[in-house]
Amino acid sequence: MEKYLFTEVRRQIKDGQSGAEVWETADGRVLKYVRRESLPDPEMFRQYQNEAYFYRYFKENSRERLRCLPEVLEVQVSDQEILILMKKYRKLFLEESNEELLGRIMGALAEIHAGKVPAVLKKERKQPGYLTKEQIEDCRAGWLSVLAEHPGVFDEKILEEAGANINEIIGWHEKEARVLTHGDFHRDNLLQGENGEILVCDWQGVGEGGASGDISFFLSRLGADGVGIEPEKAVALYCRERAGLTGETVSSGELLRHMQAANLITSFQFWHEYLHGSSSGRVREVYGKMVMD
Fold first, then answer.
1. What is the pLDDT of residues 223-263, one digit of tens each?
2. How many alpha carbons fall within 13 Å on the CB side of residue 67?
3. How many Å apart are CA 289 and CA 284, to the nearest integer?
4. pLDDT value at position 10?
5. Percentage of the chain surpassing pLDDT 70?
6. What is the pTM of this model?
7. Nearest-CA neighbor of 293 among 161, 131, 148?
8. Rounded-to-integer distance, Cα 182 and Cα 165, Å
């Protein structure tokens, strides 16, 4: 590997906090290189292994390959290292007003959800991830500390209601039909092919789950970047594309309710960790959405 880096690699594209090294080769390809010893959390290596196994499965089973997958040229996996060599593509840029592009993105996501889950990624459905009383109280206290930075601006009562009902919501949400999911679907992981096709990279979070999680996370990240898209519009486009691919009818109303549940669960548990020091407007965006959900 070291010999390859010195002879074939042109420049390092990124070396993120996740510990993966991403390089551009002299012939214009992209090399993703992961060393277990370089990762801040050993659990991350298993996630990168899942990504490598996922790419390898569709590389070896070309008839089942998803059209939205980048072309993978080489996959090597050991107990200590992972190497993924793939074709290089352009980044995709999404603007708020581009409904045609949004439709194609939803089409790529619908294709993922209609895809086959490789056996290596299949897991028995576990019990819902209910929160303990201590975890609920920690989440509530975390949000109270954020709201305390903006005295008199926000109503804190919803935190009591959310905490009292969060496990019931988690239990209902866990009953959503399971499909192949990306797990980290946002615009930074979207690429554009030579003919304008939408491609999706960075599959460390791949697995089985509800379709609503990918859609909700995608819209949430766009909103955080200042691109507001109505969930109803995105879901309508998604359901249209899913029906065109598989012929199945997906209830937009139920999908929207699962998206609300997914956003509420995620926001209540985690968003307070990222909002300290934020403006009241930014807090209002996240907290207000949680209140509506």
1. 877 788 899 999 999 999 999 888 888 899 999 999 999 88
2. 13
3. 8
4. 64
5. 94
6. 0.83
7. 161
8. 28
- Binned at pLDDT 50, 70 and 90, residue 104 comes out as very high
- Dihedral angle, C-alpha 157, 161, 162, 167, nearest 10 °: 160
Q: What are 86's two structure tokens? A: 């793939």
Tens-digit pLDDT profile for residues 46-98: 999 999 999 999 999 888 889 999 999 999 999 999 999 999 999 887 765 58
- Residue pair 23/4 in contact (Cβ under 8 Å)? The answer is no
For the chain, the three-class secondary structure string (H helix, E strand, C coil) is CHHHHHHHEEEEEEECCCCCEEEEECCCEEEEEEEHHHCCCCHHHHHHHHHHHHHHHHHHCHHHCCCCCCCEEEEEECCCEEEEEEECCEECCCCCCCHHHHHHHHHHHHHHHCCCCCHHHCCCCCCCCCCCHHHHHHHHHHHHHHHCCCCCCCCCHHHHHHHHHHHHHHHHHCCCCCEEECCCCCHHHEEECCCCCEEECCCCCCEEECHHHHHHHHHHHHHHCCCCCCHHHHHHHHHHHHHHHHCCCCCHHHHHHHHHHHHHHHHHHHHHHHCCCCCHHHHHHHHHHHHHC
| Token pair listed for 283 | 């807090």
Say which residue the tokens 């935190």 belong to.
159
